[in-house]
C-alpha cells in the first residue's frame, strides 16, 4: 500500500525542511548541531502538521544515523529495548518518540541512562506544553524547541514541490492547480502541512482528467477535499484575513451582531483555530484593563471550545464574543508595554538602581547591591516611597489609564495617587 503524500514528501536532509527556519535555517541551532555532528536529545512541541517528524527525519538523514519512530502511548518498553540493542550494535540511533508527554515511569527509567550515554538521540514530539506535561527528569536531559504553524508561503512552497516531484510526489500527473485553489489550500489548513498535502493528493487522484489528460483542480475541488469552505470568492487571496480583521474591528466597535456574523464565517469554513486565537488577542488588546474579568472568561471560553471541538465549540465562542463586544474597552495596557518596548529598543534606558540589584550572592553587600532597598511589606499599607526606574528615565510614564470602565477608573485613581506621592 502506498504511503500518504505527506509521508512520502518527508525531508531526508535539513535543507529540505519547509518552515521552522529559526531552528533549522543556516547557522541556527539545529543546523549547527547537524553540521558539527554534536546532536543532543530534544523535545519539539507545537500543533499537528508543523514539521516535528520532518525535523527528526531530516536530522537522521543529514547525519546518516539510523532513524526509528515509536509512540510513547502505544509502543511498549520492549520496543524501546529493540532500539537500544540496535544502538549497541550499530552506534547512535535517532529515535523520534511521538506523544512523549504520555511516557510512563517504566519507559522513562529505561530511557534515562541511554540519554546520558548519548547512544540514543531522543527527539520527543508533543502538542502539549512540555514544561507542564513532561517529567522534569526527561526535560533536564533535553533541549526544548517550539515549532510554529507554517506560513501560507511555506505551505505553498511545499505544494509546488509535491506537484513537481515525480519520485515521491505527484509529478507523474499533469495537474493544473488553479491559483485560487492553491491559495485556499495554503491558507485554510492553518499551518498544518500534513493536512494540506493529503488533501492535495486526494484532489488529484479523485479528479478525472480532461480529454488532454490534464487534471484541473479548482477551488470547489479543494473545498470538498478539505471539507472546508472558502470564506468568499477572492481573487487576491485576502478574504481569510479580511474576515478576521472585520471580526476584531466589530468587537472593538461594540457591534455584537457583526462580530457574530464574521465568527460564523470562520466557523463555517472550519477555521476554529484562527477564531480562538483572535478572540484571545482581542480580549487583551481591546478590552484589557477596562474589564480584566472578561479577558479571563474569554480564555475559559477558548479552552472550552478547544476541548469541545465543532459544532459545540460555537457556544462558548458566542458567549465570549457577545461579552467582549458589549464590554467597556481599553487598549491602555498594550500602549503601555509598546511604549516601554520602544524605549528599550531605541536604547533609552539606564542601569538598574543599585538598591534594586540582586543581593543574594556572596559579596553583594560589599558592592552596595540591595543595601538601601526598602522592603514594602515592612511599612504601613505595604508601600514605601523609593525609586524603581533607572535614573536616565526615572520620570517615564508608560501606562496612561482610561476611564471606560469602573475597574480601570479605580486603577487610574490608585496609579495617579501613587505617582503623585512619589513625585513629592
UniProtKB/TrEMBL annotation:
Q: Which residues form a coiled coil?
A: none
Q: Which domain of life is it from?
A: Bacteria
In the UniProt record, the signal sequence range is: none
| Keyword annotations from UniProtKB, A to Z | ATP-binding, Nucleotide-binding
A biological process from GO:
DNA synthesis involved in DNA repair
One Pfam family of this protein, by short name? Answer: MgsA_C
Q: Does the keyword Nucleotide-binding apply?
A: yes
Domain (AAA+ ATPase): residue spans on this chain:
38-150
Q: Give GO terms: molecular function aspect only.
A: ATP binding; ATP hydrolysis activity; DNA binding; enzyme activator activity; single-stranded DNA helicase activity
Q: Which CDD domains match?
A: AAA, HLD_clamp_RarA
Family, according to the entry, reads as follows: Belongs to the AAA ATPase family. RarA/MGS1/WRNIP1 subfamily.
Q: What is this protein called?
A: Replication-associated recombination protein A
Amino acid at each position: 500500500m502506498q504511503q500518504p503524500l505527506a509521508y512520502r514528501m518527508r525531508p531526508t536532509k535539513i535543507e529540505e525542511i519547509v518552515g521552522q527556519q529559526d531552528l533549522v535555517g543556516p547557522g541556527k541551532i539545529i543546523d549547527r548541531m547537524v553540521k558539527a555532528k554534536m546532536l543532543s536529545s530534544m523535545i519539539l512541541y507545537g500543533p499537528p502538521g508543523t514539521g516535528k517528524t520532518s525535523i527528526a527525519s531530516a536530522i537522521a538523514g543529514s547525519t546518516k544515523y539510523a532513524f526509528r519512530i515509536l509512540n510513547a502511548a502505544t509502543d511498549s518498553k520492549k520496543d524501546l529495548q529493540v532500539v537500544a540493542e540496535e544502538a549497541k550494535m550499530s552506534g547512535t540511533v535517532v529515535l523520534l518518540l511521538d506523544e512523549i508527554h504520555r511516557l510512563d515511569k517504566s519507559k522513562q527509567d529505561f530511557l534515562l541512562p541511554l540519554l546520558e550515554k548519548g547512544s540514543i538521540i531522543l527527539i520527543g514530539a508533543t502538542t502539549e506544553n512540555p514544561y507542564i506535561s513532561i517529567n522534569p527528569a526527561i526535560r533536564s536531559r533535553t533541549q526544548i524547541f517550539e515549532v510554529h504553524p507554517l506560513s501560507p508561503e511555506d505551505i505553498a512552497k511545499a505544494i509546488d514541490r509535491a506537484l513537481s516531484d515525480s519520485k515521491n510526489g505527484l509529478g507523474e500527473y499533469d495537474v493544473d492547480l488553479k491559483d485560487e485553489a492553491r491559495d485556499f489550500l495554503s491558507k485554510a489548513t492553518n499551518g498544518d502541512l500534513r493536512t494540506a498535502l493529503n488533501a492535495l493528493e486526494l484532489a488529484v487522484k479523485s479528479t478525472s482528467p480532461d480529454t488532454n489528460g490534464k487534471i484541473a483542480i479548482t477551488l470547489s475541488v479543494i473545498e470538498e477535499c478539505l471539507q472546508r469552505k472558502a470564506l468568499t470568492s477572492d481573487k487576491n487571496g485576502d478574504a481569510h484575513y479580511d474576515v478576521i480583521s472585520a471580526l476584531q474591528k466589530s468587537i472593538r466597535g461594540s457591534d455584537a451582531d457583526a462580530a457574530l456574523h464574521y465568527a460564523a464565517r470562520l466557523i463555517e469554513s472550519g477555521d476554529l483555530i484562527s477564531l480562538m486565537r483572535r478572540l484571545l488577542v482581542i480580549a487583551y488588546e481591546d478590552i484589557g484593563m477596562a474589564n480584566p474579568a472578561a479577558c479571563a472568561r474569554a480564555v475559559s471560553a477558548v479552552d472550552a471550545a478547544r476541548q469541545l471541538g465543532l459544532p459545540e465549540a460555537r457556544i462558548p465562542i458566542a458567549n465570549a464574543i457577545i461579552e467582549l463586544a458589549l464590554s467597556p474597552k481599553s487598549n491602555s495596557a498594550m500602549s503601555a508595554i509598546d511604549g516601554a518596548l520602544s524605549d528599550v529598543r531605541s536604547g533609552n534606558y539606564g542601569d538598574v538602581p543599585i538598591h534594586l540589584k540582586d543581593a543574594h550572592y556572596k559579596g553583594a553587600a560589599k558592592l552596595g547591591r540591595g543595601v538601601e532597598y526598602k522592603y514594602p511589606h515592612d511599612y504601613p499599607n505595604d508601600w514605601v516611597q523609593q525609586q524603581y526606574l533607572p535614573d536616565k528615565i526615572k520620570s517615564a510614564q508608560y501606562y496612561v489609564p482610561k476611564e471606560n470602565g469602573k475597574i480601570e477608573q479605580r486603577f487610574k485613581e490608585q496609579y495617579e495617587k501613587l505617582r503623585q506621592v512619589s513625585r513629592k
